[in-house]
Design a protein that fits this description.
alpha/beta
Length: about 200
């Protein structure tokens, strides 16, 4: 019986992924997982942290500080984003001190509310997934984020490697899969060497 349920869940997940265009999710396509709702009720802030930011604070947070910065656009309600988190954690560990990682949460796009409470929920969720780098929660309108980040594709997940001079050295639209981890690490190292 458990095997049948596992197979059914696997087929349902595959069907959802096939139904999505290139494994992207748009704001509004998915409700947050139960763990996010539980995290929203907690009154703790994680060690990794998540701060609500406007456009100017987002630009400052994304600015490389002498080494490459890996920026992952994600949301807790985005299943492909959540699925790729362990791979991003692995990439961050492989990069070590060669790069700074930052998550940019789009959670308020789909679930408006109190930014401070949502930031706590995002931080708690990231902690529960073993993410060891900080995130910021964008509080402005989606178009302002897309313009500030120069994003032509308005879907999550997306990951960029910014060279120390601020130029985009690598950009992945869609989920980082296992084969992309070495590419991401190589892009970080190439960006660091080109500084």
């Amino acid at each position: 019986m458990a095997l049948r349920a596992l197979v059914r869940r696997g087929l349902e997940r595959l069907a959802r992924r096939v139904a999505q265009d290139d494994l992207f999710e748009r704001p509004g396509e998915r409700t947050p997982p139960a763990v996010v709702a539980a995290a929203a009720r907690r009154d703790t802030v994680s060690a990794t942290g998540c701060l609500p930011v406007d456009v100017e604070a987002l630009r400052a947070a994304m600015r490389p500080a002498g080494r490459p910065r890996v920026v992952n656009h994600w949301a807790t309600w985005c299943e492909p984003c959540v699925e790729e988190l362990p791979r991003l954690v692995r990439a961050a560990a492989a990069c070590g001190d060669e790069a700074d990682f930052l998550g940019v949460s789009w959670d308020l796009f789909d679930h408006p509310g109190d930014p401070t409470a949502r930031a706590r929920a995002v931080a708690a969720f990231a902690d529960s997934m073993g993410v060891g780098y900080p995130s910021v929660l964008f509080t402005g309108a989606p178009d302002a984020l897309f313009e500030a980040c120069g994003l032509a594709v308005h879907q999550v997940p997306q990951t960029l490697v910014l060279a120390p001079d601020g130029r985009v050295a690598w950009h992945r639209h869609g989920t980082i899969d296992h084969d992309d981890v070495p590419l991401l690490v190589a892009a970080v190292r190439a960006a660091a060497g080109g500084a």
